[in-house]
Amino acid sequence: MPHLFLAMLLGTTCAAPAETEPIDGNMLLLPAPDGWVMLPDGVTLIVSQAEKGELVYFDTVAEQETKRVSVDFKPGAMTLQGETLYVGTKGASIVHVLDAKTGKEKREITLGGDAVANLACHPSKGPVYASTTTLGVYSIDPASGTATKTAATGHFLVVDPVGGTAVFTGVQPPRGQDEVIVKQLPERTYKVFWDRWGTRAFVLKFVPEGKDLKLVSSQKNAAVNAYTLAISPDGKKVLMTSGGGWRPPVEGGSGGGYGFPAFSTENLETMLGQGPGATNLAFHPVLNMGVANQSGRNIQLFNPKSLIGGKTFSVSAGADGRPLLITFGAKGTKVVLWNGDNPKNPEEGLHFLPLPLTADDRAALEKVYGKLPDPVAVAAKTPRPDKPAPRVPTPGRPGTPAPRVPGPATPGIPVPGATEQAETIELPAGVIAQAGFNAAKGLNSNAKSPPYPLGKSNTPGGAGERGWKGVWPANPKATFVSEGAGEGDGALHLAATTNYNRALAKPLKDSFVIETLVRCPPGGGVKCYVWGATSHVSTGPMWGVTGGKFTAMNGKGNGNGDNQAIKECKPDEWHKVSIAVDVPKQQWTITIDGTRDPKSYGFRYKTGFIQGINFLVEGKEEIYLDAVRFLNSPEK
C-alpha cells in the first residue's frame, strides 16, 4: 500500500449499510497484493507479490491459482495495455515491460526519479503514466520505451478509458503538510486544509501536450482521507473513495456524508452525485453495474449512472480494510475481492463472490465472452462408496489399535473414498459444505493447490472449499495430520484448550444433516456446538465425547439441558456421527456408526438458523476429526 495514505486508512472506516444479505462464495489464501490486473478475457487475474518476486495467475472461473512466474525484481503496481503488462518495481524508479500471458520480460524502463507509486494507461493505445512517491508523474512511450517527466502532480492515476484524451490524478496530502506544489496552478501551490472531518484530497485533470501534460481542471475539495481514484467506463465521471466521504469546504456549506463523490470529467468543479460508502470500487466491463468494497466486510452493488446503491452482501464480520483489490471476474459473473491475510481471521483472503444475474445479464455477457460458467456450482463426478482407511496406529501412541472408517454413508448421499481425488473443489449434489482436511487424496483434495498443509499447526486450512464463509483459522492447538486419517490423506487433531470453528456461507433455516468422523484417544474428548452465530448462546444441537461415551444434550431452548450418554466411543477407532437437524421444530436426532438413537433432542438455545460449527477441547482432552459435511436432508 502506498505510504501516503496508510496512516489515514488505519482506524477509519466507511459507514456500512444496516441490512446485508449472505453470499455463497469461495475463498483462497493470499498475502496482500502489491498490484493486480484483470485480463480482457474476463478470466485471468494477475497479482504481484513483491517480497516473493512473483506474479501469481488465477483462473477466476475455476477459482484456482494456475501458475506463478518468478521475476528478477520486486513487482508492485501494474497496468495493462493490449497484451503488454507494465509492472512498477516496488521501492525503485523502474518499470518492467512484460508479456501479459507468459510474464516474460520484454524491456526495462528507468524513470530517473523516485519510486513508482501507481501506473495507468488507456487499454489499447497512448502513453503509459507512472506516478512516484513524491507526486511526480512520468509519461512512458510504449514504442520507444522512453520516460519523460511531466509537469503534472499526482499520486493516484486514472486515464480516460474511451479516447485516452485525459489523465486524472489525485493527491491525499499527509496531515501536517501545509501545501503541495502544483506547478501549473496560478498560485503554483495547493494550500492543504483540514477540519474536524480530516485532511481534504484534491483531483487534477491533465491533457497530453506533446510528451508533457497540461492542467485544465481541478477539484480542491474532492474527499476526506482519500483511498483511491476511479473513472467510470464511459469516461464521464471521476470518483474518489475515502474514509471520510465528501464534506463541505471549510469555508462553509451543507450536505455531505460517507458516500464517495463523483465529479464531471469535463469540469471537475461539477459534482455529479454521491454513491454508497466505499473503501475502493470497480465497474463491470459489460453491464451497468458497479461494486463498492466496504472495508472488506461487505460489498454493495450500485448503478454507475445514477450512483444509487443496490444490494449489500456480507463477506466477513471483520477484515483488513486496505483498498487493494476488487474487480469483476469469471467472465463478469463474479466479484473478486481481497480482504486480508490475517491467519487468525478465517474470513480473510481472496474471495470469489457470485453475482445475482438475470437471464438478460447472462445473455449480454455471453455475447462478449461466449459460454459462461454455470450460475450455480456444478456437481462433481459421482464418488465411490466408502473404503476403509489403512490401519495405522495413533501418532505418538505405539501399539494402540488402528483406526477404521465405520458405517455406511447417509442414504443417497455418498462419501468419497480415500482414493478419490478431485481436480477442483466442487460440491457434489446434495452437499451444502464439506471439509476434508486432505491435501492430494480424498474429500476436497487438490494436488495442485492443497487446501490443507498437512503436518502443520497454527496455520489456516480449507482454502477453496465451497459452501463456507471462510477457512478454519490458524490455531496453535490445531494440527492437520497425515497419519491415521479417517478418509483421504489427512485429518484434524485438536489439543486442549481450544475452540475451533468455521462458519457457513449462508444460514440454514430448514432441515439438514451434519456428518463428522471422530477418533478419540484414551482420555480424550470433545464438545460439538452447532450454532447460529459465532457464540455458544446461539447453539442448537450439541453433542460430545466424554469419559469414553458419546453424549447428546437435550436442550430446553434457554441454555439449559440434560447431557445423556448414548453409546460407547471405542478409543482410537473412527466413528461416524450423523445428526439430522430440524430448525423449524428446534429438534435433532443423532446416528452413530449407522445406528440411530431413538430419542429426539431439543435445541440448547432457540435459534432461527444454523450457520456454523464449533469444536471445544478442554482440560486434558484431545480429539481427531475428519470429513465434516453439511448435507441436505435425504428427502430433499
Layout of strands and helices, then pairs:
Elements: H1 6-9, E1 21-22, E2 26-28, E3 35-38, E4 44-49, E5 54-59, E6 64-70, E7 75-81, E8 84-89, E9 94-99, E10 105-110, E11 116-121, E12 128-132, E13 136-140, E14 147-153, E15 156-159, E16 167-171, E17 179-181, E18 189-191, E19 194-195, E20 198-209, E21 212-224, E22 226-231, E23 237-242, E24 259-264, E25 271-277, E26 280-283, E27 290-294, E28 298-302, E29 309-314, E30 325-329, E31 334-338, E32 350-354, H2 359-369, E33 431-435, E34 456-457, E35 478-481, E36 491-495, E37 498-508, E38 511-519, E39 526-531, E40 539-546, E41 549-555, E42 561-568, E43 574-582, E44 587-592, E45 595-596, E46 601-602, E47 610-617, E48 622-632
Biased composition (Pro residues): 390-414
Region (Disordered): 376-417, 443-465
InterPro entries: PQQ_b-propeller_rpt, Quino_amine_DH_bsu, WD40/YVTN_repeat-like_dom_sf
How large, in whole angstroms, is the Cα Rg?
27 Å
Relevant CATH superfamily of the largest domain: YVTN repeat-like/Quinoprotein amine dehydrogenase
Q: Helices and strands: which structural class?
A: mainly beta
The number of distinct structural domains comes to 3
CATH topology value of the largest domain: Methylamine Dehydrogenase, Chain H
**Amino- and carboxy-terminal Cα gap:** 48 Å
The main pleated sheet reads as:
10 strands, antiparallel
Give the rounded overall mean pLDDT.
87
Strand content: 35-45%
Just give the CATH class of the largest domain.
Mainly Beta
- State the share of residues found in helices, binned by percent: under 10%
Please identify, by name, the CATH architecture of the largest domain. 7 Propeller
Number of helices: 2
What multimeric state do the chains show?
Answer: single chain
Record field, number of beta strands = 48
Low-confidence stretches: 1-18, 377-424
Shape: elongated
Biased composition (Pro residues): 390-414
Region (Disordered): 376-417, 443-465
